[in-house]
Amino acid sequence: MIEVTFDQLHGWLVLFFWPFVRITSFMLAAPLLGHSSVPRQAKLGLAFLMTVALGPTLPDMPDTPLFSWASLGIIIEQMLIGIAMGIVLQVMFAVVQAAGEFIGLQMGLGFATFFAPDTGANTMILSRVLYMITLLLFLAFNGHLVVIEILASTFFTLPVGIGGFNPGAFELLVRFGSTIVVSGLLLALPLVGPLLIINLSLGILNRSAPQLTVFNVGFPMSLLTGLTLLMVLMSDIGRFMQRLFSDSLLFMRQFLEILAPLPPG
Fold first, then answer.
1. What is the pLDDT of residue 211?
2. 123 three-class SS
3. Second label for 246, Cα 20 to 30 Å away, from 66, 148, 171, 199?
4. H/E element holding 237?
């Protein structure tokens, strides 16, 4: 008869529970796996499989009782690491959504919105199309495999029970949010620039010839020009996305390295 002592059972639970919390927190915060259309059972099942696969290769876990205040602190620590990684990916995908918002407003598609269940707000159609294209490109470039590799490496750079974080890393994460505006404008600039010139020209034409119905001419012209330029942009969007993915994943690695607490003294 096989007998399992409480210490053995506790050791097995500790070996898998805390990594499971970090992986689950990341999946809930990540834009791909954390999407509302993915069932919760699938998320928990995938997190459990990843934990079982990574568990034997992880460093030794802290000798802390699972049902204690110290264990609660470790759980919060693991949740912060997973959520921080998910926020980096959220910022990366928010770049194309912001670009879609900028382009849609200039094309006159501000009214073309629908309710997005994952965000809980109205989203422009063009913004959603660019988001889905970016999601497919991310999978085509094997970005999800790179993210899983980074997640597995965090257990060595940020072991369970590290005891604290570097506060400067969170400030760096907040500054990384500026990528949404900067990169979003860079992506939308080839369309926003010409469309802005067209709108300014139509505004001047309306002032010089008020009897001309500018709205009947301006909207079709802006829409047709925007669609034409969007076709040109789609032919070269892969290079921009590859650069965006590389910079974001490189920042994720650097952020996790900086997140480690500073040595005393």
1. 66
2. strand
3. 171
4. helix 237-259
Residue bearing tokens 């991310």: 138
- Give me 71's structure tokens: 């264990």
Q: Residue 202 pLDDT > 70, yes or no?
A: yes
- Burial zone of 190 (CB within 10 Å; 0-12 exposed, 13-18 middle, 19+ buried): middle
Q: Which candidate, 189, 28, 182, 190, places its Cα nearest to that of 94?
A: 182
Tokens of 248: 């974001």
- pLDDT value at residue 10: 63
Nearest Cα neighbor of 21 from 148, 160, 132, 145 is 160
Side-chain-side CA neighbours of residue 257 (13 Å):
6
Distances (CA, A) of 213 to 14, 164, 206, 218: 72, 64, 8, 9
pLDDT band at 215 (very low <50, low <70, confident <90, very high): low
